[in-house]
Amino acid sequence: MLTSSLAHVDTNNLDSFFMPFTANRQFKKNPRLLVRAEGMYYVTHDDRRVIDAAAGMWCVNAGHCHPKIVEAVQNQVATLDYSPAFQMGHPASFELASRVAALAPGDIDSVFFANSGSEAVDTALKIALAYHRARGEGHRVRLIGRERGYHGVGFGGTAVGGIKNNRKAWGMMLPGVDHLRHTHDPKEMAFSRGQPSWGKHLAEDLVRLCELHDPSTIAAVIVEPVAGSTGVLPPPQGYLERLREICDQHGILLIFDEVITGFGRIGAAFASEQFGIVPDMITMAKGLTNATVPASAVAMRKHIYDAFMTGPEWMVELTHGYTYSAHPLALAAGLATLDVYRDEGLFERSAALSPRFEQAIHAIKGLPHVIDIRNIGLMGAIELESRPNRPSGRAYDVFLKCYERGVYLRFTGDTLAFSPPLIVDERQIDQIFETVAQAIREVD
Ligand SMILES: Cc1ncc(COP(=O)(O)O)c(C=O)c1O
Predict the structure, then answer these.
(1) Which residue puts its alpha carbon closest to atom 8 of ligand 1?
(2) What domains can be seen in the chain, in order of their start residue?
């Protein structure tokens, strides 16, 4: 049982760390430091146990400090700490690639490793451009994302991403990028359970962009099958299927960004499988290694890999990669993580628990300021009405109250987001949403 924290944590010397995606000055006045973790729980610097209702950041799917994953990483670091990523290999990279390919749908059978979701996304976008060039279609240079999409923070991912605040700080973006309209319309779908029945026609927006730009200029369309970071937006029924059809019709690659939805978050190994769609590429990260060591991957269909395997054999086929692609520690974590998912039946558990999760999150309906609730699998969101002059203030207050009462969740704008580790049990689901309900009642 997880109990005591470190003997002493210095919260007076916080100046030097420029924290990512954080209100630094606000945080440093009232810091929240996590010092230990196990299973469903964190321990804070002030020695409190906090249940993790967000799997860290949608990533610790098998729960924290899983002993089998910890042991695998410990053994690996003492055996092969690093292996050059270019022109050399190590056994785990080939093994994990084939195991990920086996989990992926259809003829997706080739896997390229990187270190973060952002790198996976930029890799997939570059592969899309290079794939078309390799096939003599170098005129396909346009990339299509979607409003309210989040694809990390690389230049590619930021450009195809559709979150206003993440884009406007930089001014410059990649050229040749356009966006589908997003799929969320509260008038039509508020308080939907699972995939909304309204909205399939929104996929026709891709037809509009094809007409606008000429489809022969479009290399790829990238979407999250369920938008996560902008507040859990499950796709309307039939919407993703229609995107697939339009892409097929025009020779456009379809990329599903499964950095959040991969590895059981909505039941199946990948959301692609759950929705019965084979995209041309899947980007993944987070649950790939249970977040124990950073790693990400791009899995692609055979025709993409094959398009590169031409020309002389001595030639490097893809001039892309990272010093830490397929890092041995990360892949040891990845192999152990996949074992845990299989041995503990965690994808099945996620699917089995999702009705209970749905029931618990929708029980919040009717509380003050709650304007929408959305869910699919073990991911869900509660949207609160924003205060007129302080967007995200209400969600922040609920977040803080919950944290003080032992529940860690995430918030984005005024939406509270939930994605517990797949090891969560029914009692813990109830505890999470009872605490949230109490906090919502108390904020003004
Ligand atoms: C769908 C999606 N793509 C990409 C990313 C970026 O991943 P990372 O933060 O590991 O770069 C995220 C992160 O949340 C994500 O949700």
Answers:
(1) 117
(2) 24-62+345-442 (3.90.1150.10), 71-343 (3.40.640.10)
